# Entry
Amino acid sequence: MNNHTESEATPHQPSSAPSGKPGILRRTWPWLIGLLVLAGAALWWWKTQASNPSASDATQASARADRASGGGGRRFGGANAVQPVSVQAVRRQDIRVSVNAIGSITALNTAVVRAQVSGVLQALNIKEGQQVRAGQWLAQIDPRAFQAALGQAEGVLARDKAQLDNARIDLERYRGLLAKDAIPKQQLDTQEALVRQLEGTVKADQGAVDSARVQLSYTRITAPISGRVGLKQVDLGNVVQPGDANGILSITQTQPISLVFAVPAAHVPLITARLRAGDSIPVEAWERGGQRQLAVGRVATVDNAIDPSTDTIKVKAVFPNRDETLFPNQAVSVTLQLDVLTDVIAVPQAAVLRGAQGFYVYVVNADNTVSSRVVTPGTVDEGWMAVQGSLQPDEKVVIDGTDRLREGATVELIAADPKQRAGANAPGP
# Structure
Protein backbone atom coordinates (compact mmCIF):
# COMPACT_ATOMS: atom_id res chain seq x y z
CA MET A 1 0.00 0.00 0.00
CA ASN A 2 2.79 2.40 0.84
CA ASN A 3 4.58 1.83 -2.43
CA HIS A 4 1.46 2.55 -4.35
CA THR A 5 0.93 5.84 -2.55
CA GLU A 6 4.41 7.15 -3.29
CA SER A 7 4.14 6.22 -6.93
CA GLU A 8 0.95 8.22 -7.18
CA ALA A 9 2.46 11.38 -5.57
CA THR A 10 5.60 11.40 -7.72
CA PRO A 11 4.00 12.60 -10.99
CA HIS A 12 2.58 15.78 -9.31
CA GLN A 13 5.91 17.26 -8.11
CA PRO A 14 7.21 18.59 -11.47
CA SER A 15 4.00 20.67 -12.02
CA SER A 16 4.57 22.86 -8.89
CA ALA A 17 7.97 24.28 -10.06
CA PRO A 18 6.83 26.21 -13.16
CA SER A 19 4.01 27.94 -11.25
CA GLY A 20 6.51 29.62 -8.78
CA LYS A 21 8.61 31.57 -11.39
CA PRO A 22 5.94 34.03 -12.50
CA GLY A 23 5.25 34.99 -8.87
CA ILE A 24 8.90 35.82 -8.25
CA LEU A 25 9.04 38.00 -11.39
CA ARG A 26 5.96 39.89 -10.33
CA ARG A 27 7.51 40.68 -6.96
CA THR A 28 10.90 41.86 -8.30
CA TRP A 29 9.71 43.86 -11.31
CA PRO A 30 8.74 47.08 -9.35
CA TRP A 31 12.13 47.06 -7.66
CA LEU A 32 13.89 46.92 -11.00
CA ILE A 33 11.87 49.84 -12.33
CA GLY A 34 12.64 51.93 -9.19
CA LEU A 35 16.37 51.24 -9.53
CA LEU A 36 16.29 52.32 -13.16
CA VAL A 37 14.50 55.61 -12.26
CA LEU A 38 17.02 56.39 -9.53
CA ALA A 39 19.90 55.67 -11.84
CA GLY A 40 18.42 58.02 -14.46
CA ALA A 41 17.92 60.79 -11.92
CA ALA A 42 21.50 60.44 -10.67
CA LEU A 43 22.80 60.63 -14.23
CA TRP A 44 20.70 63.79 -14.93
CA TRP A 45 21.96 65.49 -11.74
CA TRP A 46 25.58 64.70 -12.57
CA LYS A 47 25.23 66.17 -16.06
CA THR A 48 23.56 69.30 -14.69
CA GLN A 49 26.28 69.95 -12.13
CA ALA A 50 28.94 69.35 -14.72
CA SER A 51 27.40 71.90 -17.08
CA ASN A 52 26.89 74.61 -14.31
CA PRO A 53 29.92 74.64 -12.04
CA SER A 54 29.24 78.25 -10.94
CA ALA A 55 26.30 77.15 -8.77
CA SER A 56 28.43 74.85 -6.63
CA ASP A 57 31.16 77.49 -6.47
CA ALA A 58 28.64 80.08 -5.27
CA THR A 59 27.33 77.67 -2.67
CA GLN A 60 30.84 76.99 -1.39
CA ALA A 61 31.68 80.73 -1.38
CA SER A 62 28.53 81.45 0.62
CA ALA A 63 29.43 78.75 3.11
CA ARG A 64 32.95 80.16 3.51
CA ALA A 65 31.49 83.66 4.04
CA ASP A 66 29.14 82.32 6.70
CA ARG A 67 32.00 80.60 8.52
CA ALA A 68 34.14 83.75 8.34
CA SER A 69 31.40 85.92 9.85
CA GLY A 70 30.65 83.53 12.64
CA GLY A 71 27.50 82.09 11.13
CA GLY A 72 25.86 85.38 10.01
CA GLY A 73 26.73 86.17 6.41
CA ARG A 74 23.83 88.60 5.95
CA ARG A 75 23.61 92.34 6.75
CA PHE A 76 21.87 91.62 10.02
CA GLY A 77 23.85 88.74 11.44
CA GLY A 78 23.67 86.99 14.74
CA ALA A 79 23.34 88.50 18.13
CA ASN A 80 27.05 89.37 18.36
CA ALA A 81 27.33 90.92 14.87
CA VAL A 82 27.81 94.67 14.39
CA GLN A 83 24.48 96.23 13.46
CA PRO A 84 24.35 99.13 10.95
CA VAL A 85 22.13 101.95 12.22
CA SER A 86 21.29 105.57 11.39
CA VAL A 87 21.29 108.16 14.16
CA GLN A 88 20.32 111.75 14.79
CA ALA A 89 21.29 114.11 17.58
CA VAL A 90 18.98 115.10 20.42
CA ARG A 91 18.33 118.83 20.47
CA ARG A 92 16.48 121.60 22.25
CA GLN A 93 13.88 123.44 20.22
CA ASP A 94 10.42 124.97 20.29
CA ILE A 95 7.60 122.50 19.65
CA ARG A 96 4.23 123.71 18.43
CA VAL A 97 1.08 122.27 19.98
CA SER A 98 -1.23 121.85 16.99
CA VAL A 99 -4.58 120.36 16.05
CA ASN A 100 -5.21 118.93 12.58
CA ALA A 101 -8.59 119.05 10.88
CA ILE A 102 -10.36 119.23 7.52
CA GLY A 103 -12.04 122.51 6.63
CA SER A 104 -13.92 124.25 3.85
CA ILE A 105 -13.14 127.65 2.38
CA THR A 106 -16.08 130.06 2.38
CA ALA A 107 -16.38 133.54 0.91
CA LEU A 108 -16.56 136.30 3.49
CA ASN A 109 -19.56 137.70 1.57
CA THR A 110 -21.42 136.55 -1.52
CA ALA A 111 -23.85 138.58 -3.61
CA VAL A 112 -25.95 137.59 -6.62
CA VAL A 113 -26.34 140.69 -8.79
CA ARG A 114 -29.91 140.80 -10.13
CA ALA A 115 -31.75 143.39 -12.17
CA GLN A 116 -34.09 145.56 -10.06
CA VAL A 117 -36.08 146.72 -13.11
CA SER A 118 -37.05 144.97 -16.31
CA GLY A 119 -35.35 145.91 -19.53
CA VAL A 120 -32.91 145.01 -22.25
CA LEU A 121 -29.31 144.44 -21.14
CA GLN A 122 -27.30 146.92 -23.17
CA ALA A 123 -23.76 146.65 -21.78
CA LEU A 124 -21.47 144.67 -19.46
CA ASN A 125 -18.61 146.75 -18.11
CA ILE A 126 -16.61 143.91 -16.54
CA LYS A 127 -14.78 140.72 -17.46
CA GLU A 128 -15.50 137.38 -15.94
CA GLY A 129 -13.16 136.58 -13.05
CA GLN A 130 -11.92 140.11 -12.42
CA GLN A 131 -11.81 141.85 -9.06
CA VAL A 132 -14.29 144.73 -8.62
CA ARG A 133 -14.81 147.38 -5.96
CA ALA A 134 -18.07 148.15 -4.19
CA GLY A 135 -20.01 150.72 -6.25
CA GLN A 136 -18.19 149.95 -9.50
CA TRP A 137 -20.36 150.05 -12.63
CA LEU A 138 -21.07 146.51 -13.86
CA ALA A 139 -23.90 146.61 -16.44
CA GLN A 140 -26.41 148.88 -18.15
CA ILE A 141 -30.12 148.29 -18.83
CA ASP A 142 -31.91 150.33 -21.51
CA PRO A 143 -32.89 153.53 -19.57
CA ARG A 144 -35.13 155.32 -22.11
CA ALA A 145 -38.48 154.23 -20.70
CA PHE A 146 -37.43 155.24 -17.21
CA GLN A 147 -36.09 158.59 -18.40
CA ALA A 148 -39.48 159.29 -19.98
CA ALA A 149 -41.31 158.36 -16.78
CA LEU A 150 -39.04 160.67 -14.81
CA GLY A 151 -39.71 163.53 -17.22
CA GLN A 152 -43.43 163.00 -16.92
CA ALA A 153 -43.29 163.03 -13.12
CA GLU A 154 -41.19 166.17 -13.13
CA GLY A 155 -43.77 167.88 -15.42
CA VAL A 156 -46.65 167.07 -13.10
CA LEU A 157 -44.61 168.38 -10.18
CA ALA A 158 -43.88 171.66 -11.96
CA ARG A 159 -47.56 172.16 -12.82
CA ASP A 160 -48.74 171.54 -9.28
CA LYS A 161 -46.03 173.78 -7.86
CA ALA A 162 -47.27 176.61 -10.06
CA GLN A 163 -50.85 176.08 -8.85
CA LEU A 164 -49.60 176.09 -5.26
CA ASP A 165 -47.72 179.33 -5.78
CA ASN A 166 -50.84 180.97 -7.26
CA ALA A 167 -52.99 179.74 -4.40
CA ARG A 168 -50.57 181.17 -1.86
CA ILE A 169 -50.67 184.59 -3.60
CA ASP A 170 -54.48 184.54 -3.50
CA LEU A 171 -54.38 183.60 0.16
CA GLU A 172 -52.26 186.64 1.02
CA ARG A 173 -54.65 188.86 -0.97
CA TYR A 174 -57.69 187.44 0.84
CA ARG A 175 -56.10 188.09 4.20
CA GLY A 176 -55.67 191.78 3.28
CA LEU A 177 -59.23 192.07 2.09
CA LEU A 178 -60.55 190.37 5.20
CA ALA A 179 -58.73 192.91 7.34
CA LYS A 180 -60.73 195.61 5.52
CA ASP A 181 -63.96 193.56 5.78
CA ALA A 182 -64.04 193.40 1.98
CA ILE A 183 -64.63 189.59 1.84
CA PRO A 184 -66.32 187.13 4.11
CA LYS A 185 -64.27 184.94 6.48
CA GLN A 186 -65.47 181.79 4.72
CA GLN A 187 -63.73 182.76 1.51
CA LEU A 188 -60.41 183.09 3.35
CA ASP A 189 -60.89 179.69 5.00
CA THR A 190 -61.59 178.07 1.63
CA GLN A 191 -58.42 179.54 0.17
CA GLU A 192 -56.35 178.30 3.06
CA ALA A 193 -57.72 174.79 2.55
CA LEU A 194 -56.88 174.96 -1.16
CA VAL A 195 -53.30 175.92 -0.36
CA ARG A 196 -52.95 172.96 2.01
CA GLN A 197 -54.44 170.66 -0.62
CA LEU A 198 -51.99 171.84 -3.27
CA GLU A 199 -49.10 171.46 -0.83
CA GLY A 200 -50.05 167.78 -0.41
CA THR A 201 -50.28 167.37 -4.14
CA VAL A 202 -46.82 168.82 -4.61
CA LYS A 203 -45.42 166.45 -2.00
CA ALA A 204 -46.97 163.49 -3.80
CA ASP A 205 -45.58 164.74 -7.07
CA GLN A 206 -42.14 165.06 -5.50
CA GLY A 207 -42.38 161.45 -4.32
CA ALA A 208 -43.29 160.33 -7.83
CA VAL A 209 -40.29 162.20 -9.20
CA ASP A 210 -37.99 160.60 -6.61
CA SER A 211 -39.39 157.15 -7.38
CA ALA A 212 -38.91 157.64 -11.12
CA ARG A 213 -35.38 158.82 -10.49
CA VAL A 214 -34.63 155.69 -8.38
CA GLN A 215 -36.07 153.44 -11.09
CA LEU A 216 -33.85 155.16 -13.60
CA SER A 217 -30.80 154.64 -11.36
CA TYR A 218 -31.55 150.90 -11.30
CA THR A 219 -30.79 150.73 -15.00
CA ARG A 220 -27.15 151.36 -14.09
CA ILE A 221 -26.10 148.23 -12.17
CA THR A 222 -23.21 148.60 -9.72
CA ALA A 223 -21.29 146.17 -7.50
CA PRO A 224 -22.89 145.82 -4.05
CA ILE A 225 -19.64 144.46 -2.52
CA SER A 226 -15.99 144.19 -3.42
CA GLY A 227 -14.89 140.82 -4.68
CA ARG A 228 -14.31 138.49 -7.59
CA VAL A 229 -16.81 138.37 -10.45
CA GLY A 230 -18.08 134.97 -11.48
CA LEU A 231 -19.30 133.79 -14.87
CA LYS A 232 -22.03 135.88 -16.47
CA GLN A 233 -25.50 134.34 -16.55
CA VAL A 234 -27.07 136.64 -19.20
CA ASP A 235 -25.84 137.75 -22.60
CA LEU A 236 -26.15 141.21 -24.10
CA GLY A 237 -29.50 141.95 -25.75
CA ASN A 238 -31.53 139.72 -23.44
CA VAL A 239 -34.40 141.08 -21.38
CA VAL A 240 -33.57 140.87 -17.70
CA GLN A 241 -36.10 140.92 -14.89
CA PRO A 242 -35.97 141.16 -11.09
CA GLY A 243 -37.33 137.62 -10.76
CA ASP A 244 -34.47 135.91 -12.64
CA ALA A 245 -33.20 133.12 -10.36
CA ASN A 246 -29.55 133.22 -11.50
CA GLY A 247 -29.36 136.98 -11.83
CA ILE A 248 -26.86 138.62 -14.13
CA LEU A 249 -23.69 137.49 -12.31
CA SER A 250 -22.37 136.78 -8.82
CA ILE A 251 -19.63 138.37 -6.73
CA THR A 252 -17.71 136.59 -3.97
CA GLN A 253 -15.53 138.46 -1.53
CA THR A 254 -12.27 136.49 -1.55
CA GLN A 255 -9.89 139.10 -0.12
CA PRO A 256 -10.04 138.34 2.75
CA ILE A 257 -11.57 134.87 2.71
CA SER A 258 -12.69 132.64 5.56
CA LEU A 259 -12.14 129.00 6.53
CA VAL A 260 -14.54 126.97 8.68
CA PHE A 261 -13.41 123.76 10.41
CA ALA A 262 -14.23 121.74 13.52
CA VAL A 263 -11.95 120.93 16.48
CA PRO A 264 -12.55 118.76 19.56
CA ALA A 265 -14.49 120.53 22.28
CA ALA A 266 -11.65 119.93 24.74
CA HIS A 267 -9.70 122.75 23.07
CA VAL A 268 -12.46 125.35 23.50
CA PRO A 269 -11.21 126.82 26.83
CA LEU A 270 -7.71 127.43 25.48
CA ILE A 271 -8.98 128.95 22.20
CA THR A 272 -11.48 131.26 23.87
CA ALA A 273 -8.95 132.32 26.51
CA ARG A 274 -6.44 133.32 23.88
CA LEU A 275 -9.11 135.17 21.86
CA ARG A 276 -10.20 137.14 24.94
CA ALA A 277 -6.57 138.01 25.62
CA GLY A 278 -6.25 139.39 22.08
CA ASP A 279 -3.70 136.77 20.98
CA SER A 280 -3.38 135.89 17.32
CA ILE A 281 -3.93 132.14 16.90
CA PRO A 282 -2.21 130.98 13.67
CA VAL A 283 -4.04 128.69 11.25
CA GLU A 284 -2.35 126.98 8.29
CA ALA A 285 -4.23 125.81 5.19
CA TRP A 286 -2.63 122.90 3.30
CA GLU A 287 -3.50 120.87 0.25
CA ARG A 288 -5.58 117.79 1.05
CA GLY A 289 -2.49 115.60 0.57
CA GLY A 290 -0.49 117.76 2.97
CA GLN A 291 2.30 118.33 0.44
CA ARG A 292 2.05 122.09 -0.02
CA GLN A 293 1.09 124.93 2.29
CA LEU A 294 -1.50 127.22 0.68
CA ALA A 295 -1.88 130.09 3.14
CA VAL A 296 -1.51 131.23 6.74
CA GLY A 297 -4.29 133.05 8.58
CA ARG A 298 -5.65 133.55 12.08
CA VAL A 299 -8.66 132.49 14.12
CA ALA A 300 -11.48 135.04 13.93
CA THR A 301 -14.10 133.45 16.20
CA VAL A 302 -15.69 130.20 17.36
CA ASP A 303 -19.28 129.03 17.10
CA ASN A 304 -21.73 129.67 19.93
CA ALA A 305 -22.47 125.99 20.64
CA ILE A 306 -20.79 122.57 20.66
CA ASP A 307 -22.15 119.90 18.35
CA PRO A 308 -23.22 117.12 20.77
CA SER A 309 -23.20 114.43 18.05
CA THR A 310 -19.46 114.87 17.35
CA ASP A 311 -18.31 116.70 20.51
CA THR A 312 -16.67 119.34 18.30
CA ILE A 313 -17.06 123.06 17.81
CA LYS A 314 -16.75 125.06 14.60
CA VAL A 315 -13.93 127.57 14.30
CA LYS A 316 -13.76 130.36 11.74
CA ALA A 317 -10.40 131.62 10.49
CA VAL A 318 -9.65 134.52 8.15
CA PHE A 319 -6.94 134.62 5.45
CA PRO A 320 -5.78 137.71 3.50
CA ASN A 321 -5.68 135.62 0.29
CA ARG A 322 -3.85 138.33 -1.65
CA ASP A 323 -2.51 135.80 -4.16
CA GLU A 324 -5.99 134.21 -4.55
CA THR A 325 -4.82 130.67 -3.83
CA LEU A 326 -7.99 129.93 -1.86
CA PHE A 327 -11.40 129.60 -3.51
CA PRO A 328 -14.87 129.28 -1.98
CA ASN A 329 -16.00 125.69 -1.27
CA GLN A 330 -12.40 124.45 -1.52
CA ALA A 331 -11.58 121.59 0.90
CA VAL A 332 -8.22 121.94 2.68
CA SER A 333 -6.24 120.34 5.49
CA VAL A 334 -6.00 122.61 8.51
CA THR A 335 -3.32 122.95 11.19
CA LEU A 336 -4.41 125.05 14.17
CA GLN A 337 -1.51 126.13 16.39
CA LEU A 338 -2.78 126.27 19.96
CA ASP A 339 0.46 126.83 21.87
CA VAL A 340 4.26 126.63 21.69
CA LEU A 341 6.46 124.59 24.05
CA THR A 342 9.64 126.63 24.38
CA ASP A 343 13.15 125.13 24.51
CA VAL A 344 12.24 121.51 25.22
CA ILE A 345 14.20 118.29 24.62
CA ALA A 346 13.17 116.86 21.25
CA VAL A 347 14.04 113.69 19.34
CA PRO A 348 12.95 112.42 15.92
CA GLN A 349 9.61 110.67 16.17
CA ALA A 350 11.10 107.58 14.51
CA ALA A 351 13.51 107.15 17.44
CA VAL A 352 10.76 106.59 20.03
CA LEU A 353 9.91 102.89 20.52
CA ARG A 354 7.42 101.12 22.71
CA GLY A 355 8.16 97.99 24.72
CA ALA A 356 7.41 96.23 27.98
CA GLN A 357 9.05 99.04 29.94
CA GLY A 358 7.01 101.69 28.13
CA PHE A 359 8.38 104.21 25.65
CA TYR A 360 12.13 104.28 25.15
CA VAL A 361 14.94 105.26 22.75
CA TYR A 362 18.31 103.70 21.91
CA VAL A 363 21.26 106.02 22.64
CA VAL A 364 24.64 105.37 21.00
CA ASN A 365 27.48 105.51 23.51
CA ALA A 366 31.05 106.63 22.88
CA ASP A 367 32.22 103.02 22.35
CA ASN A 368 29.58 102.48 19.62
CA THR A 369 27.33 100.41 21.86
CA VAL A 370 23.70 101.22 22.50
CA SER A 371 21.73 101.58 25.68
CA SER A 372 18.02 102.14 26.11
CA ARG A 373 16.58 105.18 27.89
CA VAL A 374 12.98 105.34 29.06
CA VAL A 375 11.22 108.55 27.96
CA THR A 376 7.80 110.12 28.25
CA PRO A 377 6.53 111.16 24.81
CA GLY A 378 4.86 114.50 24.19
CA THR A 379 3.71 116.69 21.32
CA VAL A 380 4.91 116.01 17.77
CA ASP A 381 5.80 118.87 15.43
CA GLU A 382 7.01 118.18 11.87
CA GLY A 383 8.55 114.82 12.77
CA TRP A 384 10.13 115.94 16.08
CA MET A 385 8.67 114.82 19.40
CA ALA A 386 9.02 116.57 22.73
CA VAL A 387 10.12 114.01 25.35
CA GLN A 388 10.93 113.89 29.02
CA GLY A 389 13.68 111.61 30.30
CA SER A 390 17.40 111.27 30.92
CA LEU A 391 18.49 112.67 27.57
CA GLN A 392 20.93 115.47 26.89
CA PRO A 393 21.32 117.64 23.78
CA ASP A 394 23.74 116.29 21.14
CA GLU A 395 23.36 112.69 22.30
CA LYS A 396 22.76 110.40 19.33
CA VAL A 397 19.60 108.33 19.18
CA VAL A 398 18.95 105.52 16.71
CA ILE A 399 16.28 106.33 14.10
CA ASP A 400 16.78 103.42 11.69
CA GLY A 401 17.89 99.82 12.29
CA THR A 402 16.28 99.34 15.70
CA ASP A 403 14.53 96.09 14.83
CA ARG A 404 17.50 93.86 15.78
CA LEU A 405 19.07 95.97 18.52
CA ARG A 406 19.54 94.76 22.08
CA GLU A 407 20.92 96.43 25.18
CA GLY A 408 24.70 96.76 24.79
CA ALA A 409 24.76 95.80 21.12
CA THR A 410 27.63 97.13 18.99
CA VAL A 411 26.56 99.31 16.07
CA GLU A 412 28.04 100.87 12.98
CA LEU A 413 26.81 104.35 12.03
CA ILE A 414 25.58 104.80 8.47
CA ALA A 415 23.90 107.71 6.75
CA ALA A 416 20.14 107.98 7.18
CA ASP A 417 19.72 108.80 3.49
CA PRO A 418 20.39 105.65 1.39
CA LYS A 419 21.77 107.83 -1.42
CA GLN A 420 24.56 109.09 0.83
CA ARG A 421 25.75 105.68 2.02
CA ALA A 422 29.09 104.22 0.91
CA GLY A 423 28.84 102.53 -2.43
CA ALA A 424 25.41 103.96 -3.20
CA ASN A 425 26.70 105.70 -6.33
CA ALA A 426 28.92 102.85 -7.48
CA PRO A 427 28.39 101.89 -11.13
CA GLY A 428 26.37 98.76 -11.71
CA PRO A 429 27.77 95.57 -13.28
Observations:
- The helical segments are 2-9, 13-51, 53-68, 144-179, 185-217, 268-276.
- The chain has three domains: 83-94+342-420, 98-108+252-341, 115-250.
- Residues 115-250 form a domain with the OB fold (Dihydrolipoamide Acetyltransferase, E2P) fold (CATH 2.40.50.100).
